[in-house]
Amino acid sequence: MRASIPYIQQKFDEFNALCFDGQLQPLPIRLSRARTFLGKVEYKRRRQPDGSWYYFDFVFVISTLIDMPDTFVEDTILHEMIHYYILQQQLQDTSSHGVIFRRIMNELNERFNRHVSVRHKLTAADHEADTQRRQHLVCVSQLADGTVGVTLAARTRLLYLWDALPRIGAVKECRWYVTSDPYFNRFPRARVPKVYAADPQALEEHLKEARMLVRHGRTIHVVSQHVG
Ligand SMILES: [Zn+2]
To answer: How far is the CA of 134 from the centre of ligand 1 (A)?
Structure first.
């Protein structure tokens, strides 16, 4: 499943009553399609006279990028609720998943048979599991050191990146494709010219159903026959 705001709100209220004695104050909830994290609590902080931080203005953020099992989404919500509890109580933990975080996490896992972990990031395996077909505009760059790189263009940035990518010093040659192969879901959509390293063999394999793009002036055409 992918979380929605009403779903997160419902789970938040449920876990707040069950696990935190209703001590968590309501806060804004936001969905994110970021590629790097599962969830986070955003906040502002200011330094207090004694040198410690005062935390305020919290926002609860949950990633909806990848379809995840229901229990994993619940555990992600609970993970972020532990962060929020620590921040809201103005507790100073030893690190982001420090002594206090782990104590609360272990207690909740034990009492409520949950599987919350200290994991925060989306991994390569998560991206591997992302099999949804979405259309991507892909630039494959041959680099001067013999490696290959990939850039996914946001639709509105295609012409800009078409011009800008070959001007990167390390880029020798660029080819553009359109494809819905889920392999490319793992790359971020670029708004600025940036090339991401890719495994050449995997790339060749996953470009098999791609169609090449050619440019005439300000118009981009799809070459009708398949590549490879
Ligand atoms: Zn965390």
So the answer is: 29
Separation of 197 CA from ligand 1 center, angstroms?
27
Whole-model pTM: value is 0.66
User: Does 23 lie in the same domain as 100?
Assistant: yes
- 81 with 119, same domain: the answer is yes
Number of domains in the chain: 2
Residue 208 Cα to ligand 1 middle (Å): 39
Q: Do 202 and 111 fall within a single domain? A: no
Three-class HEC string of the chain: CCCCHHHHHHHHHHHHHHHCCCCCCCCCEEEECCCCECEEEEEEEEECCCCCEEEEEEEEEEECCCCCCHHHHHHHHHHHHHHHHHHHCCCCCCCCCCHHHHHHHHHHHHHHCCCCCCCCECCHHHHHCCCCCCCEEEEEEEECCCCEEEEEECHHHHHHHHHHHHHCCCEEEEEEEEECCHHHHHCCEECCCCCEECCHHHHHHHCCCCEEEEEECCEEEEEEEECC
Interval 96-112: pLDDT, tens: 999 999 999 999 999 99
Q: What's the gap in Å between 56 CA and the centre of ligand 1?
A: 17
Question: Can you give the residue range of the structural domain that contains 145?
Answer: 134-226
- Residue pLDDT, tens place only, 50-100: 988 999 999 999 998 888 889 999 999 999 999 999 999 999 999 999 999
